[in-house]
């Protein structure tokens, strides 16, 4: 059985365990709680986050020497988000985005590398922001947050050493040496240059903030009355968990939310309801991507 199938089974098992432990009530409560104001807020915030993601992608692609107009990037990113939240795995849209852009620029490998570095840079900023918030605000994992911070610092330093070190014994001709040089070159040209790292950091920060606010709105819609400084760390924990392999966005997100809310004393049932509200909000906010996908198909068939 492939790793992808194991991941899908794990996501399905997570949902099954939640239904067994809390019942179907919280799932139905979340669906009933969704209202027009929450959906409008999610759609508005999605415009901001999608434009910022597209800006980040355009910056990284430019560093790799590939032109990418912002308007084109925004449309492609919306399409990518829609595919990610409707298809298993959570990364199908990103792969499609990289291949499509690569074909347009006549270099599929370069297109996929641009997407990979763009997503990696965004997730790196997200992890750093999450650790910073967890170090300051109370959360279920505050006791281990310093250890996580040290571990992340060690990974950053180790990665820098590996990339900068010279290959030994092979004259730099081994496959590993070539990959290491290519990764280091991509990082320097597309992510760490003076013209790239600042836009990437700003765009990624705005994306994380937009998603966190969306989650807080979902929690309020589901009935949570906890103050924002208690909900924010939970939101960031859930966003990290939501990046795990899933089934159309569902599975790990609901599991992490249920655990985080229970550990914070808010109740696993409220966590599940919040995750359901958030999932519906994200899906509705991604619907412009369905329109982009339809238009692309119609133009292709014309």
Q: Can you offer a commentary on this structure?
A:
The protein is mainly alpha-helical. It has one domain (3-145, 200-301). The chain is built from 13 helices and no strands.
Approximate helicity band: over 70%
Poorly predicted sequence stretches spanning 5 or more consecutive residues: none
Q: Helical region count? A: 13
Radius of gyration: 20 Å
Q: Please give the domain count.
A: 1
Order of helices and strands: HHHHHHHHHHHHH
Given the helix and strand composition, which structural class is it? mainly alpha
| β-strand number | 0
Bulk shape: globular
Mean pLDDT: 88
Largest sheet: none
Terminus-to-terminus distance: 40 Å
How big a fraction of the residues is strand? under 5%
What key attributes describe this structure?
302 residues, mainly alpha, globular
Quick synopsis:
With 302 residues, this protein is mostly helical. The chain has 13 helices and no strands.
Please give the structural blueprint.
Layout: H1 3-22, H2 25-33, H3 36-63, H4 70-86, H5 92-104, H6 108-136, H7 145-164, H8 175-191, H9 194-222, H10 228-242, H11 252-263, H12 268-285, H13 287-301
Helix pairs in contact: 1-11, 2-12, 3-4, 3-6, 3-8, 3-9, 3-12, 4-5, 4-13, 5-6, 6-7, 6-8, 6-9, 6-10, 9-10, 9-12, 10-11, 11-12
């Amino acid at each position: 059985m492939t790793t992808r199938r194991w991941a899908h089974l794990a996501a399905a098992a997570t949902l099954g365990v939640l239904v067994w432990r809390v019942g179907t009530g919280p799932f139905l409560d979340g669906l009933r709680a969704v209202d027009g104001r929450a959906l409008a807020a999610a759609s508005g915030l999605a415009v901001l986050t999608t434009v910022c993601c597209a800006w980040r992608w355009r910056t990284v692609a430019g560093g790799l020497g590939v032109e990418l107009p912002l308007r084109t990037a925004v449309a492609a990113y919306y399409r990518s988000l829609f595919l990610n939240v409707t298809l298993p795995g959570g990364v199908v849209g990103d792969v499609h985005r990289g291949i499509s852009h690569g074909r347009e620029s006549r270099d599929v490998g370069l297109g996929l590398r641009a997407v990979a570095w763009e997503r990696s840079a965004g997730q790196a900023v997200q992890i750093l922001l999450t650790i910073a918030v967890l170090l300051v605000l109370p959360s279920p994992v505050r006791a281990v947050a310093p250890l996580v911070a040290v571990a992340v610092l060690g990974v950053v330093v180790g990665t820098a050493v590996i990339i900068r070190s010279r290959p030994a014994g092979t004259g730099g001709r081994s496959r590993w040496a070539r990959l290491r040089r290519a990764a280091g070159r991509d990082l320097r040209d597309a992510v760490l240059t003076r013209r790239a790292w600042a836009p990437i950091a700003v765009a990624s920060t705005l994306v994380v903030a937009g998603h966190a606010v969306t989650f807080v709105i979902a929690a309020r819609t589901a009935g949570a009355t906890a103050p924002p400084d208690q909900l924010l760390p939970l939101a960031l924990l859930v966003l990290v968990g939501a990046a795990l392999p899933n089934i159309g966005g569902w599975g790990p997100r609901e599991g992490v939310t249920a655990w985080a809310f229970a550990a914070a004393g808010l109740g696993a049932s409220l966590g599940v309801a919040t995750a359901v509200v958030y999932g519906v909000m994200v899906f509705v906010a991604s619907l412009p991507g369905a329109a982009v996908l339809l238009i692309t198909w119609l133009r292709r068939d014309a």
